[in-house]
Amino acid sequence: MEENVKFNFDEFRKEVLECIKVVYRRLLSKYQSEHIYAFSLASTSSFDDLYFLANTVEFLDSCRKEYFLDYKYDEEEWQIWIVEDEIVKAVSKKLKDFSDTMNDRKTQEDFFERLISLYVGILKDLKNEGFFNPDILLNVYVREYIDDMDMINIYKELNNEDAVEEYKKFLIG
Question: How far is CA 146 from CA 85, 110, 119, in A?
Fold first, then answer.
């Protein structure tokens, strides 16, 4: 990070953790008759925002069977996008404000890598604590930035072996 501007990762971790809990609980109340099978923490490749994506078993069941993996794993196709929520906007604003202070590419890349690691760690901790259904598929979605092998490695940290194999098939055939 640049010397004159610091980003407090510990504070930000707490804010993202709280944001995930609030957003996920809202999802559960809104989709109470549906089972949420997948939840992703997402960002654009510039990492100056944060949003959430989710999908339900019912939506997946309604999709065409020949495109099953596309609908299951391609977040762009998912039913639920949470961007405009106030708590999500507040976290995104913090990212945007800090991201505007970075001018050198190496600083940006280091920051982005730390964010990805932070996001994966938070989701992993929440899953291990039993916050999420143990069968839920979790991911950190930044396709424009993360290559396929890194995406598979992230997926491996957050999900069971069968899901990882299916995800690999979706990404690389």
Answer: 25, 14, 13
Is residue 2 included in any domain, yes or no? Answer: no
Task: Note down the domain range covering 77.
Answer: 9-172
Q: Confirm whether 116 is domain-assigned.
A: yes
Which pair of tokens denotes residue 104?
Answer: 């050198």
Q: For the segment 145-164, what is each residue's pLDDT rounded down to a tens digit?
A: 888 899 999 999 999 999 99
| Whole-angstrom distance, CA of residue 117 vs CA of residue 137 | 17
Q: Tell me, letter by letter, the H, E, C secondary structure of 100-120.
A: CCCCCHHHHHHHHHHHHHHHH
Domain membership flag for residue 27: yes
Rounded to whole angstroms, the Cα distance separating 165 from 52 reads: 23
CA-based torsion, 78, 72, 154, 119: positive or negative: positive
- Contacts with 19 (C-beta within 8 Å, 6 or more apart), sequence order: 50, 87, 88, 90, 91
Beta bridge partners of 107: none
Q: Does residue 49 form part of some domain?
A: yes
The answer to whether 103 and 71 have CB atoms below 8 angstroms apart is no
The whole model's pTM is what? 0.89
If one counts the domains in the chain, the total is: 1
